[in-house]
Write a structure and sequence with these properties.
The chain has 2 domains: 137 residues, Nucleotidyltransferase, domain 5 (2-Layer Sandwich); 178 residues, Nucleotidyltransferase, domain 5 (2-Layer Sandwich), CATH 3.30.420. It contains 11 helices and 12 strands. It starts with 9 loop residues before the first strand and ends with a helix. The mean pLDDT is 97. Belongs to the ROK (NagC/XylR) family.
């Protein structure tokens, strides 16, 4: 998107993760006017985290020479589980000290009643891609975010699928293996995340190494490196047989999950983002990973959705969350007018 002169009104987007918080000042066209990153400081509790967030907002506003009086609304995104209408976290695994915290009202009150909305982080990132990212020309989107686990956001004609109980779009937990499925960190068996999430990738790799599989990863681990999705990706870039096999198996499973959603929602576009995309768009391994997903979809999907659904990588990267939740705040304001 070509940069233009900042367009009023302005919004604050807050993307809260288990380690860091990203804060952005975003204009009406989705442009980031200022950005600040700070620590969530989970061990110190929610008050410490909020103190960091408020300071980051102040710093970002100062960077673009604005004050909170110039801000029309605030958007906050956190990982689940959550009560979106109630504006509170329920029992988020990545934020254990924030359990049950009414974050929307707390931030709203801190800023004198400034309109504040609350959203799931994957939904927010999906909306960012839908608003100004890779799906800006689409009417409907399935957005997969690949990291330690697997998140998903679904947008249909500006509407985020939140569900009646704030669990809509939790598609990393769809079941792809009914019998003797792998155990997911959520406690469920046979889920997509249990087969294609970053944590699962590491577990599957360690099982193969323990079973005696040859791999350059053995040498890397003997040198003191930690087994991570990134290390497996690096081994794959060296054409390591085990690493490539594991990465392509993750892609196959994502193809199964994608087919399920295509047959449920029939979207214009399916996008993949997050840290575990194995180099992403424009890299040899990233392109092979995406192509393997497409091949699995081709084998399993009806021909019409397969031939007409765009399957690609997302564009906004790590900025999608705070841009998207600022966009959600903007959307709420438009609906209220």
């Amino acid at each position: 998107m070509k940069p233009t002169k900042p367009q009023e009104p302005y919004f604050v987007g807050i993307d809260i993760g288990g380690t860091n918080v990203k804060v952005g000042i975003v204009d009406d066209a989705g442009q980031t006017l200022a950005f600040c990153k700070t620590s969530t400081d989970v061990p110190s509790g929610v008050e410490a985290g909020l103190k960091n967030i408020y300071q980051a907002i102040d710093d970002a506003l100062a960077d673009c020479r604005l004050t909170m009086d110039d801000i029309k609304a605030i958007g906050i995104a956190t990982p689940g589980t959550m009560d979106i209408p109630g504006g509170k976290l329920v029992d988020p695994p990545n934020l254990p000290t924030w359990k049950g915290f009414p974050i929307r009202q707390t931030v709203c009150d801190h800023y004198g009643g400034k309109p504040t909305i609350y959203q799931n982080d994957a939904n927010a990132a999906a909306y960012g891609e839908y608003w100004i990212g890779g799906a800006r020309e689409a009417h409907s989107l399935v957005f997969w975010t690949l990291g330690t686990g697997i998140g998903c956001g679904i947008i249909i004609d500006e509407m985020i699928i939140e569900g009646r109980h704030s669990h809509g779009g939790e598609c990393g937990h769809i079941v792809i293996q009914m019998d003797d499925g792998r155990l997911c960190d959520s406690g469920q068996y046979g889920t997509l995340e249990a087969y294609a999430g970053g944590t699962s990738l590491v577990k599957r790799c360690q099982e193969q190494l323990d079973a005696g599989r040859e791999s350059v990863l053995n040498d890397m681990l003997q040198q003191g490196q930690e087994l991570t999705p990134l290390l497996i990706s690096e081994a794959g870039e060296q054409n390591d047989e085990l690493a490539t096999e594991l990465i392509m198996e993750s892609a196959r499973c994502l193809g199964v999950g994608t087919t399920n959603l295509m047959h449920t929602i029939d979207p214009d576009m399916v996008l993949f983002g997050g840290a575990v995309t194995f180099g992403g768009k424009g890299t040899a391994q990233g392109d092979r990973f995406l192509q393997r997903i497409r091949e699995e979809v081709q084998q399993r999907a009806f021909s019409v959705p397969y031939e007409n659904t765009i399957i690609d990588y997302a564009e906004l990267g790590a900025d999608a969350g705070y841009i998207g939740v600022a966009g959600c705040a903007r959307l709420a304001c438009l609906k209220a007018e």
